[in-house]
Amino acid sequence: MATLFSDPFDALLQFQQALDSFRTSGWLSTGPSAGGAYPPINIFRKGDDVVAIAEVPGVRKSDLEIQVVGRTIRIAGSKSVEYGDKAALHRRERLAGRFDRAFTVPVEIDADQVKAECRDGILALYLPRAERDKPKTIAVG
Amino acid sequence: MARSQALEVQEKKELVSKDEKTVPARYYVPTTDIFETDDALTVVMELPGVEKPAIDVSVENDVLRIDARIDFTKYEGLEPLYTEYTVGHFARSFTLSNKIDQQQIGAQLDDGVLTLTLKKAKEALPRRIAVG
């Protein structure tokens, strides 16, 4: 995959196409609430580990709650949209409200090593695969 | 506003623009709120994943144009397994009905939300005329 990112413009297009082609993947289909709920999530593989990235523009870090139980990750929180007093609204497209979403990944993760980062409206969760779940290479004697 | 309401996923709309881009990547239309007070027009726009230096805001011939690019190098080495949304640059433009003081455009980026405060030009402010 990394070798694709040579030409910066072409690379983004290829990346977008790769994302599109996976939209139909049933990777999370066994999860309790996979797909359709807020926030939308993209899941990537990075070496052995799993990285989940969600778009949460306008959600403050303090309003986010992330929990990990076994293989299931829960992302909950709220988003508010405020207008000033006496403002005349011309266009209203942004939505506000509460969200609560859980998804299950098909690999065992090390809950203690999970890292969450939220910057510029993007929430990234680093979910390291548990040591005991990694495939072992067995040398043929 | 109902705060208990559950949030819905808004499908990203791809930009259909009269002037085509020379870059092959896809552009999306950011969801935007616009509201007006007595002295300013405020444009609030959701640009998840965009960093401050990658945002271009311009007002020309009464057209407000916002162009925001994402830094996709952060996705290097990541192999998609399951996706629900695509990643792309953002662009949108609005024709302004009020005269804007171009020197006084305030821009603030918080948690992926860009807030533009466009102060109305002096001559556009409503003037009260006293009847003599």
- Assigned CATH architecture of the domain at 37-81 and 95-134 in chain A: Sandwich
Main-sheet strand order of chain B equals 1-2-8-6-5
Count of alpha and pi helical runs of chain B? 0
For the record, the CATH class of the domain at 37-81 and 95-134 in chain A is Mainly Beta
In this structure, how is the largest beta sheet of chain B organized? 5 strands, mixed
Major β-sheet profile of chain A: 4 strands, antiparallel
Assign the CATH topology of chain B: Immunoglobulin-like
What share of residues are in beta strands of chain A?
A: 35-45%
Report the count of strand segments of chain A: 8
- Taking the alpha carbons of the first and last residues of chain A, their distance comes to 34 Å
Rough outline of chain B? elongated
Helix and strand pattern of chain A: HEEEEEEEE
Radius of gyration of chain A, Cα only, in angstroms? 18 Å
Major sheet: arrangement of strands of chain A = 1-2-8-7
CATH topology tier name of the domain at 37-81 and 95-134 in chain A: Immunoglobulin-like
Secondary structure: elements and pairs:
The complex is a heterodimer of chains A (141) and B (132).
Chain A: H1 8-21, E1 41-46, E2 49-55, E3 64-69, E4 72-79, E5 88-92, E6 97-104, E7 115-119, E8 122-127
Antiparallel strand pairs in A: 1-2, 2-8, 3-4, 4-6, 7-8
Chain B: E1 13-14, E2 27-29, E3 32-36, E4 40-46, E5 50-60, E6 63-70, E7 79-82, E8 89-95, E9 100-110, E10 113-120
Parallel strand pairs in B: 2-8
Antiparallel strand pairs in B: 1-2, 3-4, 4-10, 5-6, 6-8, 9-10
